Amino acid sequence: MANYEEVRQPSYTAGQKPAPLLHMLRGDIQAVLDRDPAARSTLDVLINYPGLQALWGHRLAHWLWRHEFKLAGRWLSQLARFLTGIEIHPAAQIGTGFFIDHGMGVVIGETAEVGNDVTLYHGVTLGGTSLHKGKRHPTLGDHVVVGAGAKILGAITIGDHSRIGANAVVVKSVPPNSVVVGVPGQVVERSKPRPPREAADLEHGELPDLIGVSLTSVMKRLQELEKRVDGRASPGEQESVPHAPEHGVWKGEDFSI
Known about the structure:
Blueprint: H1 21-35, H2 42-48, H3 50-66, H4 70-84, E1 87-88, E2 93-94, E3 99-101, E4 107-108, E5 113-114, E6 119-121, E7 125-127, E8 139-140, E9 145-146, E10 151-153, E11 157-158, E12 163-164, E13 169-170, E14 178-181, E15 186-189, H5 210-229, E16 249-251
């Protein structure tokens, strides 16, 4: 598979100054109102959304961590975990407009980097795969959506506007405007990339069935071979071939999740 490590990094990285606090907090609230039809008001969001509460706990814990109050930052992150069921390491870098829907069981590791306008559902893990210190957790670009129960593991990059299907296990980098499904995750490059400023893509029912497509292709190939053996097909007849990914990346239609 091609190397996608050069995918644009999130807008907020360690070497950059964070967005103004008030602007960031307003963006966090607006993200909930925009992406959850059940959100009725700002007060409702402030009181009843553990994803927002965990995120704001992380904002404070991250400030403590950056100012060398590491023990206090880690303690605060554990307190937020106890109260919300969401564990975010205080060193993790998270951009504006971040939304955790429902949230229970979400884990975000120490060196994870999350871009702007990213959406996670419950049970998502941004985990590491190495015992060595340094970058070992994923980087998510802008406008990424990660479905319930998905696991993104290692120092890999998920490109902007990509969608990770529910329960997928992603262990390799993903190009922008892609959909990832399966275990291990299979990458589908969408033939019609989503416009950059369009609303969040939350159509979870529209997933490519890669196994079904492959099985159908194999069955067609088997039928052609049976016809050839039975003498009912000429040698020059067009042969069907099993569908296979090209350089590790499937080609598909305009899939969403």
